[in-house]
Amino acid sequence: MQLFSIGISKDLKLDGENLKHGLKNLAENGIKIAINSNVCGSVTYYSLKVEDKQDFNNVARIRNYIAEAISDIIVNQIDKRIIRKLINKYYHYFSEDEKEEIEKIAYNILEDDVNKETFKLAKKEQIFVLVRDFLKESDYIDLEGFVNFRLRDFISELSEVTDKAVDEFLMKKEYNEFIGLLKYFVELQDSKVEILNIIVDKNGKFKLYDENDKPISNDFINEIVAELKDGVISDEDALISTLITIAPKKIFFHSINNMRDNEILETVKKVFNDKVEICYGCELCSKIKCEK
Predict the structure, then answer these.
(1) Phi/psi of residue 226, each to 5°?
(2) Which domain holds residue 154?
(3) Considering only CA atoms, which of 112, 263, 272, 115 is closest in space to residue 189?
(4) Nearest residue to 193 (alpha-carbon basis) of 172, 181, 170, 209
(5) Whole-angstrom distance, CA of residue 117 vs CA of residue 115
(6) Prediction pTM value
(7) How many CB atoms lie within 10 A of CB 255?
(8) Structural domains in the chain (count)
């Protein structure tokens, strides 16, 4: 005897196996359900039939299992399809490679959220109630239509995730372009020192020494900083500008545990590549450790 039927659009890229896996709780609880499929255009219809007439008396219980399976599919699988659809709709001007990168960032946002499990459980519970109540009124549910018209808040939240992913992508792209520009400037410079030692003192300040462990003149550094645009300049920006001007053939970082932020180190590594090395112990490092 047929209980419910589910319509799944081809656009959702789901198949009967997703549904069967979601309904495994029925079999585990001794309720035998046969799933038959019928393709009509772009929609596949799945009919759920009770094999044992005795189970028909448990329709409310079966409905709960089906609602749980559908809500699980929506939260864990359809969410990613929705994100892809949102990207294609609102950010169609990006290339396919860029769209894929944005998609990956969005998935990472979903997966890396510190409250991911709490969020998903709460969202699944909300969707479960909506699906269950819908199935009380109807024995047929079109999955895509249900998501589009009954779960607008859910789509809105995924839209925010997509927007955030685009922002992160653009920031990353801008950063990579910035790194490329710095590399270009470095290539134009003649090396003024063979080896540059960068000491990070206990206050997170940078002190520069040449290959003979002699300090690089502060006057020289100040002259570089003065050539920059007016305004406040951070120690990190001053360091980058100095490195580009000096263009050392080798850079050694010492006492990096004193760094306030490792981002500057990563930036220098990207600009100077294999010219950068980290020192984990030498006379200069010992000197810093002995400072009060």
Answers:
(1) -65, -25
(2) 2-182
(3) 272
(4) 209
(5) 6
(6) 0.76
(7) 24
(8) 2
